[in-house]
Automatic annotation (TrEMBL):
Record's GO cellular component terms: cytosol; nucleus
Signal peptide: none
InterPro entries, per database record: Rubisco_LSMT_subst-bd (IPR015353), Rubisco_LSMT_subst-bd_sf (IPR036464), SET_dom (IPR001214), SET_dom_sf (IPR046341), SET_MeTrfase (IPR016852), SETD3_SETD6_MTase (IPR050600), SETD4_SET (IPR044429)
Subcellular location: Cytoplasm, Cytosol; Nucleus
Species the sequence originates in: Anseranas semipalmata (Magpie goose)
A Gene Ontology BP annotation from the UniProt entry: methylation
PROSITE patterns in the record: SET
Superkingdom of origin organism: Eukaryota
Gene: Setd4
Ranges where the SET domain occurs: 47-272
Catalytic activity: N(6)-methyl-L-lysyl(20)-[histone H4] + S-adenosyl-L-methionine = N(6),N(6)-dimethyl-L-lysyl(20)-[histone H4] + S-adenosyl-L-homocysteine + H(+); N(6),N(6)-dimethyl-L-lysyl(20)-[histone H4] + S-adenosyl-L-methionine = N(6),N(6),N(6)-trimethyl-L-lysyl(20)-[histone H4] + S-adenosyl-L-homocysteine + H(+); N(6)-methyl-L-lysyl(4)-[histone H3] + S-adenosyl-L-methionine = N(6),N(6)-dimethyl-L-lysyl(4)-[histone H3] + S-adenosyl-L-homocysteine + H(+); L-lysyl(4)-[histone H3] + S-adenosyl-L-methionine = N(6)-methyl-L-lysyl(4)-[histone H3] + S-adenosyl-L-homocysteine + H(+)
Family to which the UniProt record says this protein belongs: Belongs to the class V-like SAM-binding methyltransferase superfamily. SETD4 family.
EC number: 2.1.1.364
Protein name: SET domain-containing protein 4
UniProt subunit comment: Forms a ternary complex with TBK1 and ZNF268; the interaction with TBK1 is ZNF268-dependent and leads to TBK1 monomethylation.
């Protein structure tokens, strides 16, 4: 008896460890059973992928067999894709066709998602809508208290994103009103701002690229969106490579992996070589140890470390602006970027060296003094950003204790700031070695 119990205990421990390592299979859940049946009715052949919950990435897809390089991971028939064709074939089609000025493909898709979500049980797309996130973590959904904790360039873009969605809502109100005859309820309660925000985030975070020809019933914005049920459960990893495209022969959207994947492991795709600020802005998440990540240096921070009495200061700034050297100045895993060092090299030119500014922009060595001054100021900026990041992290940990309802969003910003801190500390180490060498 004892022996068997020991074996059972070992099995249970092994299973628990496997779950921890690989994720927990969720394909038995009713919403996934219904989704798979719905997809099968539309021609989707059951693949080796299973929905699962992973401890580090949340919901994703695991493979039930080892995947080899160039193996087809998933092939989703055209009938399963939600595009502007889907929208035009629905009861919304005739309203879109006659509306002037024409609406954008994006608004057409948003309108369809809101209408189908409102239809509930009557919607043909219900099995897909039921597995979509109820809420998102894109900056447009974050409270102002949380947005203010983002790094400066991202904070600015977050505010622009909020303005974009708000303007989209205001400019679409008249079109929404034209749909009143399709609904028993007041149109304003169905197509409200929070409904549009949800639909916009669904499209922004989940669509695949699929080009459609230009149609007169839509405005001139590119029609390149397609929502791909089940396929959109695949999470992003910066360390994998995939080939993804619509196959005209099979009339399916296909993904091929260029990386191997072990049995029961999570299958990843790559959204592109994006840094964490871009990932948070567009998709609402942060990738840990992202090799593409950078910490941005604003022009205000740059100028804090230069004497305002430098007679050539304005001329130097003008040169940097004309040659686009005041944007995209960064620290990365390999230290300060060439662009950042070049901008600082030009700002560090002595009065007698100013005529060499063209050479400085090319990265030439101007003088030993200029090189030392550049590295010294770079190290000061790096140190300032380390301290600022640590201060914000302290602020976040205090807010997490005080504001329970903001905890999820605060944890996201904290993850971004912790990644920034790792990059800055690595850069400080590199700069210290460079300073010692010079």
């Amino acid at each position: 008896m004892k022996k068997n119990r020991g074996r059972t205990g070992r099995k249970r421990r092994r299973k628990h460890l496997q779950n921890f390592m690989y994720g927990v299979n969720c394909s038995h859940k009713l919403e996934y059973i219904k989704l798979k049946k719905w997809l099968k009715d539309r021609g989707f052949e059951d693949s080796n992928l299973r929905p699962a919950q992973f401890w580090d990435t949340g919901r994703g897809l695991m493979t039930t067999k080892a995947l080899q390089v160039r193996e087809l991971v998933i092939s989703l028939p055209e009938k399963c894709l939600l595009t502007t064709d889907t929208v035009l074939c629905s009861c919304l089609g005739e309203y879109i066709m006659k509306w002037k000025p024409p609406i954008s493909p994006l608004i057409a898709l948003c309108t369809f998602l809101i209408a189908e979500k409102h239809a509930g049980e009557k919607s043909l797309w219900k099995p897909y809508l039921d597995v979509l996130p109820k809420t998102y973590t894109c900056p447009v959904c974050l409270e102002q208290d949380v947005v203010s904790l983002l790094p400066e360039p991202l904070r600015k873009k977050a505010e622009e994103q909020r303005t974009t969605v708000h303007e989209l809502y205001v400019s679409s109100k008249a079109f929404f009103s034209s749909l009143q005859s399709l609904f028993a309820e007041n149109i304003g309660t169905i197509f409200n701002y929070s409904a549009l925000e949800w639909a916009w985030c669904t499209i922004n975070t989940r669509t695949i690229y699929m080009k459609h020809s230009q149609r007169e019933c839509f405005s001139l914005e590119p029609d390149v969106y397609a929502l791909a049920p089940y396929l959109d459960l695949l999470n992003h990893s910066p360390n994998v490579q995939v080939k993804a495209a619509f196959n005209e022969q099979t009339r399916s959207y296909e993904i091929q992996t260029n990386s191997q994947c072990k049995k029961y492991e999570e299958v990843f795709i790559c959204y592109g070589p994006h840094d964490n600020q871009r990932l948070l802005l567009e998709y609402g998440f942060v990738a840990i140890d992202n090799p593409h990540s950078s910490v941005y240096v604003s022009s205000d921070t740059l100028l804090k470390y230069f004497p305002p009495l430098d007679k050539q200061r304005d001329a130097k700034l003008s040169i940097l602006k004309d040659h686009d050297f005041l944007e995209n100045l960064t620290f990365g895993w390999d230290g300060p970027s060439w662009r950042l060092l070049t901008a600082l090299k030009l700002l560090s030119l002595g009065a007698d060296e100013f005529t060499c500014w063209r050479r400085a922009l090319l990265g030439d060595v101007i003088s030993a003094r200029n090189e030392q001054q550049t590295l010294k100021i770079t190290a000061k900026i790096c140190h300032f950003l380390v301290e600022e990041t640590q201060r914000v992290l302290l602020q976040i940990s205090q807010l997490k204790r005080d504001k329970e309802k903001l905890k999820k969003h605060l944890t996201l910003v904290e993850a971004l700031r912790l990644e920034d801190l790792k990059i800055l500390q690595k850069s400080a180490e590199i700069l210290c070695n460079l300073n010692m060498a010079t």
